[in-house]
Specification:
The structure is a homodimer. Chain A starts with 18 loop residues before the first helix and ends with a strand. Chain A has a domain at about 20-110: Winged helix-like DNA-binding domain superfamily/Winged helix DNA-binding domain (Arc Repressor Mutant, subunit A), CATH 1.10.10. Chain A has helices spanning about 20-25, 30-40, 45-55, 55-70, 90-95, 95-110; strands at about 75, 85-90, 120, 145-150. Chain A is an alpha+beta fold. In chain A, a hairpin with a 6-residue loop joins strand 1 and strand 2 (about 85-90). Chain A has a two-stranded antiparallel ribbon with strand order 1-2. Chain A binds a DNA duplex (30 and 30 nucleotides) through helix 3 and helix 4.
Chain lengths: ~150, ~150
DNA sequence: CCCGGTGGGTTGCGGATTGAAACCATCATG
DNA sequence: CATGATGGTTTCAATCCGCAACCCACCGGG
């Protein structure tokens, strides 16, 4: 696993001590995580991202640049010809659990019981089970069994 | 675990089939997840949310209403006296893994090696270990070992 | 009864962000 | 040379956001 550190979008963070806030400063907008989702699903070109997300082109330009500047995407010229390619860096790939938990929450809470939705499956076509936070001792953790310890 | 279904913010979704997109339609903005984070950390009153997040008051009004309308928060009159209280619903509490993965990504990628940050600890004060997606057979899953299966 | 403080907002305004659509430059192909 | 794909930029209108000011109900004290 990589530990690439990302730089701030601007000199200041919304809440400099909180990792949640810092992450949201980087990807907490309407589109960035959908771009990352599509990158995980194989999209690499400007046009492909645009087609999949339906995002406005100027905004896509901006998001791709920001994600690149923050080290989540890397821009390369494609091996063949003169096309651009945006590929996930290690830091970008490490957003997988974030996308997964968003997906699992959505599957559970954002669909009526009759509605169908796409599903994440493993190599054998088996649906990925729900992820559960566990402590060092293997016990299930929730909001009642954890708390934030402020930095000393 | 609850399976409360949430209703759309407007009649249309960004991408009706994708649970990730639906979740982001509900909480994918600058502030909603920070409000949820603070709710998990014990905030209940308007003033307390305002103080912790630093969000503008009119925007906070809007976010609290939207989160309430979407079923992530419930508004109650406090048992004592005449104050308002916003408490997480089951659906809101189930965002815990989302907040946790955002936190863990931030801890890893959004801080320089010297910087300190707040930490999530369990009841014993032990830091919560990194969450890892595993398949039904217990193997570790990543973006190379999974794919999205479109709804039939 | 008047005064100030607290909680929970609303309103108005200017500036930043967004979305839709048009435009453009560079290839590659027919 | 015309056409189409790719990867943008530009323009303009609409929306959103942050800030500051204002509002109002309730409470406790004097």
């Amino acid at each position: 696993m990589s530990h690439t550190t990302v730089r701030a979008p601007n000199p200041v963070w919304t809440d400099p001590d909180c990792p949640v806030a810092r992450t949201l400063d980087l990807v907490g907008d309407r589109w960035s995580l959908l771009v990352v989702r599509d990158a995980m699903d194989g999209a690499r070109s400007f046009t492909e991202f645009q087609r999949r997300t339906g995002i406005a082109r100027n905004i896509l330009t901006d998001r791709l640049r920001k994600l690149t500047a923050h080290g989540l995407l890397a821009q390369r010229t494609a091996p063949t010809g003169r096309r651009q390619e945006y590929v996930l860096t290690d830091a970008g790939r490490n957003l997988f659990p974030v996308i997964l938990t968003l997906r699992q929450w959505g599957e559970r809470h954002a669909f009526a019981s009759g509605e169908t939705h796409s599903t994440l499956v493993d190599r054998h076509g088996t649906p990925v089970p729900e992820i559960a936070p566990t402590g060092a001792d293997g016990t299930l953790l929730g909001i009642d069994s954890t708390h934030v310890q402020k930095t000393r």
